[in-house]
Amino acid sequence: MISTRTALVTGGNGGLGTATISALLAAGWRVVAPVRSGTAGRLPAGAVAVEADLTVEADVRAAAATAASDPEAPLRAVVNLVGGYAGADLIADTPVADFEAMLTINLRPTYLTTAAALPYLIGAGGGSVVCVSSRAAVSPFPGAAGYVTAKAAVLAFAAAVDVEYRKQNVRCNTVLPSVIDTPANRAAMPDADHSRWVAPAAIADTIVFLASDASAPTSGARIPVYGQA
User: Fold this and answer.
1) How do residues 210-228 score in pLDDT, each as one tens digit?
2) Environment class of 108 (CB within 10 Å of its CB; exposed 0-12, middle 13-18, buried 19+)
């Protein structure tokens, strides 16, 4: 299958990332994935790996340039999956460094990657930006103020992308997972009812739809992907 469009996918080594990259490849996309040094072998076969620190602007811009480097498959989608969770104490007992660390991992890469890719999306005639927030952003729980704030900020950032770039044919939508059924989450919560969690492949199908031209009329959406959780 000859690819005629490229997707730039961050967080490609995670459970949701590998499912999303696999689904995009199966749908005929060329996929470029920034990864940490030495981890390229964990990506699904067929993805183009680029070593990058997604908190460093120069690295992100280089990754976006690689994604846009194939004239036969222009960059048409950005999928911002990188993020992380760390539990904390209640707000008054949480060090500000721990609070800010959640902003750094969940918001900064999404901002840098989207900002670096937007000129290429516009130059290609438009495209799609997909961000990943969390149900916690709209339904918080105690002991996660940094995570909740960061994921709510992702929603606000996606709304800003939508309002600023919709007229240039760039749409931006956000998915909000509950607990994703990954090996890491199962290990962290072995006694939970895993059957109620949402499978990475199911979220990936939603992301592929949002990346594709089939979702062309949709921008600014906040889509819950909760499963039964």
Assistant:
1) 999 999 999 999 999 988 7
2) middle
DSSP 18-50: HHHHHHHHHTT-EEEEEE-TT-GGGSPTT-EEE
- Rounded CA-CA distance 34/112 in Å is 12
Q: Give the number of other CB atoms < 10 A from CB of residue 183.
A: 8
Question: What tokens does 224 get?
Answer: 């819950």
The closest of 139, 145, 65 to 106, measured between CA atoms, is 145
Give the integer Cα–Cα distance in Å for 146 and 106.
Answer: 10
Specify the amino acid at residue 223: I
Decide which of 3.30.470.10, 3.40.50.720, 3.40.50.1980, 3.20.20.80 is the CATH code for 5-225: 3.40.50.720
186-201 burial, b for 16+ CB within 10 Å, e for fewer? Answer: eeeeeeeeeeebbbbe
Q: What is the pLDDT of residues 48-91, one digit of tens each?
A: 999 999 999 999 999 999 999 999 999 999 999 999 988 779 99
pTM over 0.85: yes
Q: How far apart are CA 50 and CA 190, in angstroms?
A: 34
Q: How far apart are CA 128 and CA 105, in angstroms?
A: 22
> Which backbone phi and psi does 172 adopt, to 5 degrees?
-140, 125
